[in-house]
Amino acid sequence: MSFSKTVEITETSADTRRITVTVNGTPRVVEVEPRLLLVHLLREGLALRGTHIGCDTTNCGACTVLHDGNPIKSCTMLAVQADGHEITTVEGLGTPSELDPVQEGFHREHGLQCGFCTPGMMMAARALLDREPDPSEEDVRWALSGNLCRCTGYQNIVKAVLWAADKQRGAQPAEEDAR
Amino acid sequence: MTALDEVKIGGLGASRLRVEDQRFVRGRGTYLDDIKLPGMLYMEIVRSPLAHARITRIDTSKAWQIPGVRLVLTGEMMAQRNLAWMPTLSYDTQAVLATDKVRFQGQEVVVVVADDPYIAKDGCDAVEIDYEPLPAIVNPEQSAAPGAPIIRDDKPGQTDNTCYRWEVGDREATERAFAEADVVSSLKLHYPRSHPSPIECCGAVADFDAGTGKLTVYMTTQAPHIVRAAVALIAELPEHQIRIVSPDIGGGFGNKVPVYPGYVHAILASILTGRPVKWIEDKTGNLISTGFGRDMYLDAQMALRRDGKILAVRMHADTDQGAFFADAQPSKFKVGLLHSAFACYDIGIGYITAQGHYTNKAPGGVAYRCSFRVTEAMFFQERMMQAAATDLGMDQAEFRRINLRRDVAFPARTPFGFLVDSGQYHKCLQVGLDAIGYDEFRREQAAAREKGRLLGIGISTMTEPLGAGNSREYDILGIKMFDSAELRVHLTGKAILRTGARTQGQGHETTWAQIVAHELGIPADDVVVEEGDTDTAPYGMGTYASRSTPVAGAAVSMAARKVRAKARKIAAHLLEVSEEDVEWELGRFYVRGAPERGASIQECAMAAYSNMPDGMEPGLEATAYYDPPNLTWPFACYIVTVEVDPETGVWDVLRVVAVDDCGVRINPMIVEGQIMGGLTEAYAMASMQFQTYDADGNMIGANYMDYLLPTAWETPGFELHEVVTPCPHHPIGAKGVGECAAVGGPAAFVNAVIDAIGDAGVRNIDMPLLPDRVWTALQTRQSVSGAPPVGRS
Amino acid sequence: MYPAKFAYEAPRSIQELLDLLARHGDDAKVLAGGQSLVPMLKLRFAAPELVVDINGVPGLDHLTEDPDGTLRVGALCRHVTLERSALLAAEYPVMAAAAPLVADPMVRSRGTMVGSICHADPQGDWASVLMALGGHIVAMGPRGKRPIAMTDFVVGPFQNALQPGEFAYEAVVPPPVGQRTGTYLKLERRVGDFATVGVAVSLEHSGGRVVRAGIALTGVGPATINAADAADVLVGKPLSEETVEQAARLAAEAAQPQADHRGSVEYKRHVVATFVRRGLARGEVVAA
């Protein structure tokens, strides 16, 4: 069954295959139908609900995760394709006690409103900062150009990523307003 | 002891960081799709590929045969349960599943419920449906043409495709004013069909428990109590046995106000299968079938005196309602608050007529980030202002100055019946003009033109009525548009607050606590806010039309003040003085004349449960239902500059200046976030975001490849300014703000582009101002009107 | 959003891949970057019996230049690799201009140039680029490799010239005969949108004259359009206002646009001409 309901129904091995995907650093062995999308494996099979589904046509970026460190849309990859690869989701950012600078930046600069696009946006931002620790505003806008947000108008998202870059480099993040 | 610093405790005016962020940045929000109940089934919908057709055969037998398919629902099965049709929020009916005909592309025809959505989709593919195509009607002109096929032949007595007629104002006085005018300025405009398109689509998890008879529905709704009432009426279930829970909402913008067929399908499917049923729309389902906004045609004239004074306005609007009149709007006003147009200008006379048309298009007409068609009102108003100034040969800013209401002119009644109560319109305009450097830009523009470069500047000034309603005039389905808050202060001085509103990104969890902090001095961090569960929230009308702060926010204040009034009695008891001798400062009562003798609000809370005066009811909590005396009237001035590439028609935004007067700002950071979001939608409308239909009724804009939303790349930077005129009747002087920029902004962008190509004599380009339309206008020196043309498929 | 059922194979070598393709023929669909195929599967516009995932096949992700200047882009070379390539930035201005304009960053980190060309979307950017550069696709099948000129590769909308049993091994750009200039210009309603109009212009200069030229058009016909007549007028002489104007006119004539919500026929032809002019203006810079 597509949502990895291997407990209820035993499928013949022709219909499903066993894959090993390292998700947020932990190898996970799962049995999946070839047609299962990676995003459904993450959300339903592995109960990682932070990766969201926004559209059907690979346009919105809400489902962005890192695949071997590169940002991809998890709605546009089959789960079987992730066999032997490393996936990082929003749940893999930061630690329970300490936020990743990107998460902290989004909070401090009011880079989110409804929060639905936020995980995908943050993963795209994470990928940028991994590659380019000192991005310009233009770099940030370009790196996020595959992620749609309907609430914020992006300006604070851009500020959030620049804040995170400063924090990560050990530079003093931009002076906070009197908050 | 000194009084508390209000900003430090997160009170009014503090840019308090949002509490809801903590779960969202960790990916730990609970959106609808995150809800998974044991034994849950999944539902998918088979939609009509045709816009108008008679259904001649439905065969679901192959779908039933697929292992894992648990239920296949047809219109016939719905009809047997008297559920094939349901009421809309505009006193019309809407098909839940089609029985006789399909009336728009994407209409719900069959529903398949299965063990998982992949199988449900397999089931959908196995359903066979035969259609006999009928001619499709895709605009008001076709709809009103003699001999047009009757779309709503299901409605007894429906002899044409008109769904309403409405008028307001003084027709005769208007005619007289036009007869006396020096100049009459005319303009025809189209506000294209658009979709609110939150990134999260609509959905529901319906869970009927046959053991208790209780129906719980988790639902992407901005208005849970309205939905509960609607479900009680549609499904004939007792209201106390219905629980609607609105979880975290991934954006609403008006799209999540109506009751959609999918919700009803999921509920019935759960009742029939005895298991929870989840329905999540795909993006095409959302764009093709749920509440759109706008799609209005305007034919308007302005009567002018040569010196620039507006004598009267006359407007006729044709609205394209789609197949079912499903506007979510106050029942008294058939074309929403279109008649709020020109409220900021000192105009005594006007007349508006409107006609609604059924077409073979998706139903709706929701308040997409707006108060019920004020978006059209303000867009038309500000486009007419530009055209009139041009006709008079007058400067855009000067023409507005001549006609804007003076600060001393409040309160004033508009020709269409609204009472505007406050504002500093001239100051607001001036702040905007100074910020953009208006005169300097005009010089720059002239110099650039010499070199063949086309620069333009557009102004939009407007006041809009936010915060419906007052109960005299505003109701939805008969329910008056009040709102509510319930505040419980616990023993240790911590509190829980619930309201009848429902946040979808506006940050209620943060800002409501700030109002409590302001009223009681309880630190905002000590107040938890809960919304969205009809079993626990007080009855409210929900969040849309920028009504949360004006109505529910006011209720929060009033509930807190009730708590304070009781706490005062407790303080008198604790301080052993009479209540009249007790004074209040933030967070603390003290004895008049002896300020060192005091009792903090926390001490009062403790006493309310442990040491109350004799005869006093224990506890410290209050509920307030708030019926606002009037709407709130925020004012704004948006100014945009652009450069148009004459060779390609591509235009780039140079600067965007926004001056918003939304009264007292509870949380300036959140207010600014809302304004920037609204400006982005304004830019989107002006530049790229629209839905249209080809001659066969196929929707263009049914997915994100065709329905374009701006990204971080092209969205311009915003320069924000403020003017503060407190609302005279709101308890804390606040007004609505969330939609102002989306309402007033589009005209500023369009006016700027028209200004840039003004020398070509082009009067109008209807939105979206796609490059080809701008280029065509430049080439032909004529207006480009209507929806972008699309050939027959 | 939920694909129909299909079988899935992930070969580990080119031989395994060829065997699978030989066995399944037209029923098999090759999955490389998947940024066109997976969306088609999700929407159930495509429902192959077998998906052959080539991502595990070694030796297909190359981006190399032979000693003679031939550029080879393997079937698994991602857009992002091209976007960030110093070699392309220095030597292949048309490709360097096009690479960042394909879709969006996430699609570029996964999608491939060769896959995009095979998808044969009339609005795909890479086919025009490779066509303007006079390139070809190397098909590999049971009988080995064979080159298919770009001008022959796209046979119609979403149709390519690969035979059953074959897959696209690499895209090849021939060595230049002069100094390369050129660019790719794309009119899009928004970043990441499909092209309303795309124009690839590639020139090679020697001795103050244009010695080779290619102009190809995106989004203005049922398939990628090779504006050969437009390119031909440029060859054998220095760029002049006159030849540029001729090329612009001929390219506009070569376009076969349809009116739609992206623009009228007239507008699209006009943009083709404008972009040819602008593209050639950038081509003038010929520092020896």
Automatic annotation (TrEMBL), chain A:
Keywords: 2Fe-2S, Iron, Iron-sulfur, Metal-binding, Oxidoreductase. One of its GO terms (molecular function) is metal ion binding. Residues 17-93 form the 2Fe-2S ferredoxin-type domain. SUPFAM superfamilies: 2Fe-2S ferredoxin-like, CO dehydrogenase ISP C-domain like. The keyword ATP-binding does not apply. It comes from the Bacteria. Pathway: Alkaloid degradation; nicotine degradation. InterPro entries: 2Fe-2S-bd (IPR002888), 2Fe-2S-bd_dom_sf (IPR036884), 2Fe-2S_ferredoxin-like_sf (IPR036010), 2Fe-2S_ferredoxin-type (IPR001041), Beta-grasp_dom_sf (IPR012675), Diverse_Oxidoreductases (IPR051452). Pfam families: Fer2, Fer2_2. PANTHER family: OXIDOREDUCTASE WITH IRON-SULFUR SUBUNIT (PTHR44379:SF5). This is Carbon-monoxide dehydrogenase small subunit. It comes from Pseudonocardia thermophila.
TrEMBL record, chain B:
One of its GO terms (molecular function) is molybdenum ion binding. InterPro entries: Ald_Oxase/Xan_DH_a/b, Ald_Oxase/Xan_DH_a/b_sf, Ald_Oxase/xanthine_DH-like, AldOxase/xan_DH_MoCoBD1, AldOxase/xan_DH_MoCoBD2, AldOxase/xan_DH_Mopterin-bd_sf, CO_Mo_DH_lsu. SUPFAM superfamilies: CO dehydrogenase molybdoprotein N-domain-like, Molybdenum cofactor-binding domain. Pfam families: Ald_Xan_dh_C, MoCoBD_1, MoCoBD_2. SMART domains: Ald_Xan_dh_C (SM01008). Signal peptide: none annotated. Residues 26-135 form the Aldehyde oxidase/xanthine dehydrogenase a/b hammerhead domain. Keywords: Molybdenum, Oxidoreductase. The keyword Oxidoreductase applies. PANTHER family: ALDEHYDE OXIDASE 1-RELATED, XANTHINE DEHYDROGENASE. This is Carbon-monoxide dehydrogenase large subunit.
TrEMBL record, chain C:
One of its GO terms (molecular function) is FAD binding. Pfam families: CO_deh_flav_C (PF03450), FAD_binding_5 (PF00941). It comes from the Bacteria. Signal peptide: none annotated. Residues 1-178 form the FAD-binding PCMH-type domain. Keywords: FAD, Flavoprotein, Oxidoreductase. This is Carbon-monoxide dehydrogenase medium subunit. It comes from Pseudonocardia thermophila.
